[in-house]
Amino acid sequence: MTRLVMKFGGTSMGDLERIRRAARIVAAEVKAGRKVAVVVSAMAGKTNELVAWTDGAGKPGAGVALSDDEYDVVVASGEQVTAGLLALTLRNLGLDARSWMGWQIPILTDDAHGRARIEDIPGEVLGAAVDSGQVAVVPGFQGVTRDGRITTLGRGGSDTSAVAVAAALECPCDIYTDVDGVYTTDPRIEQKARRLERVSYEEMLEMASLGAKVLQTRSVELAMARQVPVRVLSSFIEPDDNGTLPEKSGTLICEEDEIVEKRIVSGVTMSRDEARITLLGLPDRIETTARLFTLLAEANVNVDMIVQSRARTPETVNLTFTTGRRDAARAADLTRASQGELGFEEVAVDEDVAKVSVIGVGMRSHAGVAQTMFQALADKGVKIQAISTSEIKISVLIDAAYAELAVRALHGAYGLEAA
After folding, report:
1. 390 pairs with which residues across the strands?
2. What is the pLDDT of residues 246-298, one digit of tens each?
């Protein structure tokens, strides 16, 4: 008996015809003898519409606490619609199918409404249903608190839902999306980009956090922690006349030990969702720097790159850090409000920047990766504003106008067109 979790994203659920195609793919897996649970996203664009409705409803009046609990009730409904529609379509194909809401399984989360984290999924009830031959259709993105309130997991949360259900059922997870796998870089930027057959959890985690939009970061974290094999596949396929799917290709996300072909660099990513904030003339005292980043942390502003350099004024420095573009205004307002306490002269914000990264587990054991990156950028006249590194990645902050040029240059420099 082989269990399998399948996940279909918003593009795959975009209309009734696409839902019918997804149903045919599910039916082919059932015909092949697999016991299937399916996790679905809302129709493409539906969540944005629902969020706009909650915004239009306005903020609570005087004396009423601000909470996102009713926001969750509204935006979770998009996945409920597609779960029901897919279950109906599967029944139309002659399959025993049923939708399972997050509270029925249950998918237990904390009470951080709008950005909840999954705490537990008891797999016994859902596992028994699947093993009996029922196709269980689960709305992604949603869960329930222990006191019965609906929650949502944040944007991209359906990927996390699918991996969590697969972990509960102790089985692999196939994620069907509008691309046929993970590429060495974005094919829209570099036509020579190649699909990777296998990517390690660590590489995929870095790719997801640094701009690759194939999988949500938290889903990869969970897959790595629970050792769930995840395969990224195209949903734009069709079973043949016998109801059989073509042989699976896509990209498998797995342990590094399972990758036979060892690559130094696996991919190049780009993120335009960046902003650079610089404090000029900051007193050169460790307690001042500590206070600055304490204020940012207390405001839930995530900081990435940090660069400090000597200022022209004695005993002062210029300190630059990067954050997501959506956090930039809040971070700048916070620092300006604390100017008297921190003692800096001026704050500057630049949102016309991009972060370009190279990622690969082979970087651990190979010298010269950084030299290749910096030389390739220098050859194209791309100036580096900031640098951050880890064991398996190097990221640079550059002018946004050079982002695509940098991606193409690095893709070629590491020979990724032959990956």
Report:
1. 393
2. 888 899 999 988 887 678 899 999 999 899 999 999 999 999 999 999 999 99
pTM to 2 decimals? 0.86
pLDDT of residue 38: 98
Task: Report the distance separating Cα 163 and Cα 167, nearest Å.
Answer: 6
Distance between CA 218 and CA 149 in Å, rounded?
22
Confidence of residue 419 (pLDDT cuts 50, 70, 90): low
Please return the burial class of 133, using the count of CB atoms within 10 Å of its CB with bins 0-12, 13-18 and 19+. Answer: exposed
Residue 307: is it exposed, middle or buried by C-beta count within 10 angstroms (0-12/13-18/19+)?
Answer: middle
The pairing of beta strand 386-390 with beta strand 393-399:
antiparallel
Tokens read off for 335? 């620092």
Q: What are phi and psi of 235, to 5 degrees?
A: -85, -5
Q: Which residues contact 287 (CB under 8 A, 6 or more apart)?
A: none
Three-state SS at 349: strand
The terminus-to-terminus CA distance of the chain in angstroms comes to 36
Q: What percent of the chain has pLDDT over 70?
A: 99
Helix axes 217-226, 201-209, angle to 10 degrees: 160
Question: Among residues 161, 155, 158, 267, which one has the least CA distance to residue 204?
Answer: 267
Interval 141-181: pLDDT, tens: 999 999 999 999 988 899 999 999 999 999 999 999 988 89
Kindly report the length of the chain: 419
- Mean pLDDT computed over 300-309: 90
Give the residue-averaged pLDDT of 374-387.
95
Assign 36 to helix, strand or coil: strand
What separation in angstroms does the CA of 211 have from each of 174, 252, 296?
A: 21, 19, 23
SS3 240: coil
Tell me how far apart the alpha carbons of residues 350 and 222 are, in angstroms, rounded to a whole number. 34
Helices marked H in 14-114: 16-31, 46-57, 69-75, 77-92
What residues contact residue 12 under an 8 Å CB cut-off, 6+ apart?
18, 21, 22, 41, 176, 177, 178, 235
Bond into 229 cis (ω within 30): no
Going by pLDDT thresholds of 50, 70 and 90, the confidence category of residue 231 is very high
